[in-house]
Amino acid sequence: MSRIASVLIPMPLPEAFDYAEPEGMALAAGDQVAVPLGPRLIRGVVTQLREALGGNRPLKPVAEKLDDPPLPPGTVEFIQWAARYAVDAPGQPLAIALRGARAPKPRPQRVVRVTGAQPARATPARIRVLEAAAAGPIPPADLARAAEVSSGVVKGLIDEGALVLDLIVAEARFDAPDLALHGADLNPSQAAAAEVLKALVMAGGYSVALLDGVTGSGKTEVYLEAVATALAADPGAQVLILLPEIALTQAVIARVAGRFGAQPGEWHSDVAPPARRRVWESVAAGTCRIVVGARSALFLPFRKLALIVVDEEHDGSFKQEEGFIYHARDLAVARGKIEDAAVVLASATPSLESLRNAETGRYRWLKLTARHGTAQLPDIDLIDLRETPPDPGRWLSPPLVVAMAETWGRGEQTLLFLNRRGYAPLVLCRACGERMTAPDTDSWLVEHRYTGRLVCHLTGFSMPKPLACPHCGAKESLVSIGPGVERVEEEARALFPDARIAVFSSDTVFDAREARRMIETMAAGDIDILVATQAAAKGHNFPNLTLVGVVDADLGLRGGDLRAAERTYQLLAQATGRAGRKDRPGRALLQTYAPEHAVMQALKAQDRDAFVAAEMAERELAGLPPFGRLAAVIASGPDAAQLDDFLRKMAEAAPNAPGVAVYGPADAPLGLIRGRRRKRFLIRADRGVDLSAYMAAWRARVRPSGQIRVAIDIDPYSFL
Ligand code: ADP
Questions:
Q1: For the segment 474-515, what is each residue's pLDDT rounded down to a tens digit?
Q2: Measured on CA atoms in the order 136, 139, 144, 146, is the torsion positive or negative?
Q3: In CATH, what class is 379-420+483-616?
Q4: Ligand 1 contacts CB of residue 265 (under 6 A)
Q5: Of 220, 473, 626, 654, which one is least surrounded by beta carbons within 10 A?
Q6: Per-residue pLDDT tens over the stretch 372-387
Q7: 3-97: which CATH topology?
Q8: CATH number of the domain at 188-368, out of 3.40.50.300, 3.30.70.560, 3.40.50.460, 3.90.1720.10?
Q9: Which atom of ligand 1 is nearest to the CA of 311?
Q10: Is 221 in the pocket of ligand 1 (CB under 6 A)?
Q11: Is it the case that residue 1 has pLDDT exceeding 70?
């Protein structure tokens, strides 16, 4: 009897399509296949096979079983689970999962190798070339460089037959981790935490532990022991370490490589496509046993995932807000459950969600309350900007400048933290008051001095800074309002002309290699003052950094969404936590206009528990996460009347369900992006409600017409 294959296609389609399995193809679930879709052949993945009962309309046959590795059952199940959770088409997470499979293969490289034939004339240059080539195949240009000769010498040896040209494809190979190597000698509290994690890993099966330890307590050292245990317990076991930023992946890759004597697989948006393919295939084959990556690494085709570590688990960067909307920490826990794996969530400032799960006993709670060794947590002081304001047009207050001077005088480093890219967040016309905004988006244009452009950070739109106001035509009337990192750097240079100053933001550090270089330069002490956005303010260890100045501690509190206080606390605790490692005491100064605010007081007193307790009580009273659940609907369209009409229908279609309240529609704070008007619903539900099912039922009742798009965001982090 013939069989029917359900094939999932990496496109936003509601479900898998059925195809007939051709005679003799012997498909299995997870296989990658090519199937006809309209006039095209397209790659898909078989999710299920069933016997054809006959009598049905004839199905198109699967065109081809591809030679690429199949997706393991856990990966397929995870993709389907994630789609259901996010109320999105399963083809969306599948597209993420196949990113590596669809990347181009590494191209063959031209190399030369020795043939054994001796050249007619053996000049010293030629001998050097042959000696260098004896080590193995090498590209001709590299060989010439290694032997310090011109390319003509290499070519001459090829012409004479002493060297031969060849094409090779670099093999997809990851060295096995060396499990005989040892990590650091753990201190007693680290050892106690590591023992619990090791026991959870050895017990096998699904578990979640929250590794809650102050900055510098050695969380990385502790979870690397759990990684070692997982790898040693089963020769096929694989481990995934997730990090929120590319810059942080670089630091952890170096530590993993040091601990296990082998490079882990690296996975993030900055990895070149052929390297991505190499990692993808090696993970599918089980030969890449450790992956260090950003959130999308969660969708890799692990054969036998034994342990997932989510480092800096509180970090908002784990939330993907465009395309397929998901939170990598939450999905990591789900994947752990599907794969029967241990999950470790690590942070110095865990999310309230994870703390709540730890409090109620759903997660094992492991605490590290002190820094390793003699290192102390920094002293934190508030600078009241109402009392000691900076000079007009300046952003660093006198007490901060004095502290910077003292720090520099001792030969130590300062980190100035400001979570704002560019030179100035706003440019306005002194003559007519016009604010420069993006043409089709509700957002101010940010001035960037390095490039001389005004940039929209939402859409990437940019234009040269005009000489005259585009609105009133006044010449030289445009003024820059407020500071970004570039402007703070300018001020620091004016104050400390002899200091070595650098800026770390996504504009100055645009790829993984540059990030690594900057981190190494800073760690080596070759930068005196680093002005940084959050890209550099988390997770790193800079032994000679003893002063952290937070330029605008109030920044994250403005706008005030549900998590504003929590996020500000976490970000500033992380940033200030960079100060004082090794044996040098550190200091952090927070510039604020609201020193009485609960967040500032908690930071100063270093009393996380009191802050968390107050925040939890407020959330509980309001039924907000982690005590209730939220979802958002963002509807957008180019035509305001059409959008309103659709939203009316959508509001009427909202199902009635106990424990669910629907608010809106309301104008989104960002009412216009790329020419599309935006409106939102907010949905609050009691904890026990299956909010994904509710949202799916709602969406099934309305069909967006025309150019209207509807996005559903389960557990939203952005309310813009
Ligand atoms: P966390 O992740 O908690 O911020 P890390 O694991 O990065 O902490 O440790 C902070 C610093 O202390 C690192 O430089 C690390 O190498 C060092 N360290 C931590 N624990 C030990 C230990 N047991 N022995 C030696 N060095 C340690």
A1: 999 999 999 999 999 999 999 999 999 999 998 888 788 888
A2: negative
A3: alpha beta
A4: no
A5: 473
A6: 887 788 899 999 999 9
A7: GIY-YIG endonuclease (3.40.1440)
A8: 3.40.50.300
A9: 2
A10: yes
A11: no
